[in-house]
Amino acid sequence: MAKIIVKELEISTSVFNKEDYICITDIAKYKDEFQANDIIRNWLRNRNTIEFLGIWEQLNNLNFKPIEFDGFRKEAGLNSFTMSPAKWIGTTNAIGLISGRYGGTYAHKDIAFEFASWVSVEFKIYLIKEFQRLKEQEFVELGWDIRRNLTKLNYHIHTNAIKENLIPKELTPLQINFVYASEADILNVALFGMTAKEWRVINNDQKGNIRDMADVNQLICLANLESLNAHFISEGISQSERLKKLNSIAISQMKILSFNDRKHIDDISF
Prior knowledge:
This protein has helices at residues 24-28, 36-45, 47-60, 66-75, 85-92, 109-119, 121-165, 173-192, 196-202, 216-234, 239-268, and strands spanning 2-6, 9-16, 19-23, 97-101, 104-108.
């Protein structure tokens, strides 16, 4: 569950069945902090609201009950007509609203934006802007996780190759650890020009490690180098020779990746 701040109001968001939902109870508090549930019920009494919800459900919900919906649509707008999220969901088998979870009523983002427009057009605009910002941030974080996982996966391939080709069975645990550290630093030196320890001495005010500070292109290159180093190890190539090859490959790949970045910037420039 993530939260966004809209007009100094905290709005909860969540994901149900892989779809984004927004807490309309929080949105209603923009109009009246103490009468949020009444505001939602008043919105649901509106004929336009019932028609909007019904059409949305027909487009997105195979189990929606259209006959029950038609009954509500005929009554909507009458003084005697009442509606609540629980009644709408229970009678029509709706999925666009989710009531009773996490202390409020949630609506699919399509419906939540419609509700926000009813509450305040200005608030809706700010809500859309902040929600988009949240999704963009999640996308960036997802991309970072994918790159980090790719590097980790290649590291497992890398260490397995070391076990099979470089480590005699009689080695002590200390010697085994030394081999791992040495192989990791081969990649660091090939790509970054220094070992992890050397980087730490120079950047003692930085959090994380040398690889945490890498940019996207360096992470891509590092993932490739790990796979190649595993292959070179299986071929029995000496450590010094591997370092020369990896450094040459790193230089070549970083030139290509940097050129592609510049070309992309040129393509989108006006």
